[in-house]
Specification:
The chain is α/β, with parallel strands linked by helices. It has helices at 17-24, 37-42, 55-59, 77-87, 103-115; strands at 4-8, 29-31, 48-51, 66-69, 92-96, 121-125, 129-134, 138-141, 146-151, 157-161, 170-171, 181-182, 187-192, 196-201. The protein has 5 helices and 14 strands. The strands form 2 sheets. Strands 4-3-2-1-5-6-7-14-9-12 form a 10-stranded mixed β-sheet, sandwiched between helices. A 4-stranded antiparallel β-sheet has the order 8-13-10-11, with no helix packed on it.
């Protein structure tokens, strides 16, 4: 049974060292577009293609690639893909290419991912950050990297340890309050009463 997957969307993917590490350390890849340029750029052949696919795109595929058509027009491709992961007990999902082209899509995709974070362990990779969604006490490995924390609730109490400016069971005073922090060493811990979005710089 597949427990983890890399989901490749159609946004911008930068071939950073971190992205290369993700590709090298995983062996199950899901694409939401049969003709994705990101697949070619990353040198990845997907194990599975999801989405509302036209017949021409399907005909061009390697016969070894599994294709699952998802035609629900009331949900985005990312939502349908995360639903598939949830329904097939794929617990850990790394998402590449969900940001970087359209700001509305980028923001929506981060918010969509946050709504699935109680069910799936999601890491969303951009050109500059890895984005994770935290509630329970969580240790995060990051060596002297920039960190930003955004709470989706103004009443959320947050505690951190290992950051330059730690929070001690505090509410963020504004959306900008948790921006541009730093990791003091090789890791930090964070917990919150409800889901927070944590941005960790990558190289």
């Amino acid at each position: 049974m597949i427990k983890s997957a890399v989901l490749i969307a159609n946004g911008k993917v930068s071939k950073t060292d971190y992205v290369k590490k993700i590709i090298d350390s995983n062996d199950y890849f899901i694409s939401i577009d049969a003709k994705s340029e990101n697949l070619k750029e990353l040198g990845v052949q997907p194990n599975l293609i999801l989405g509302d696919l036209d017949s021409a795109a399907i005909d061009d595929l390697d016969s070894k690639i599994e294709v699952v058509e998802l035609s629900d027009q009331n949900k985005t491709d990312l939502e349908k893909s995360l639903d598939y992961c949830k329904e097939n007990s794929i617990k850990k999902v790394v998402i590449l290419g969900s940001t970087g082209l359209r700001e509305d899509h980028s923001m929506a995709n981060v918010l969509i991912a946050s709504t699935y974070s109680d069910i799936l362990q999601i890491e969303l990779i951009t050109s500059f950050y890895r984005i994770i969604f935290v509630r329970e006490n969580t240790k995060i490995n990051a060596h002297n990297e920039p960190v930003s924390i955004i709470s989706l609730s103004s009443d959320n109490k947050i505690t951190t340890r290992g950051l330059k400016y730690d929070l001690n069971n505090e509410k963020l005073k504004s959306f900008s309050h948790g921006i541009s922090n730093e990791v003091n060493g090789d890791s930090f811990t964070v917990k919150a009463e409800s889901t927070i979005v944590v941005f960790i710089g990558i190289k």
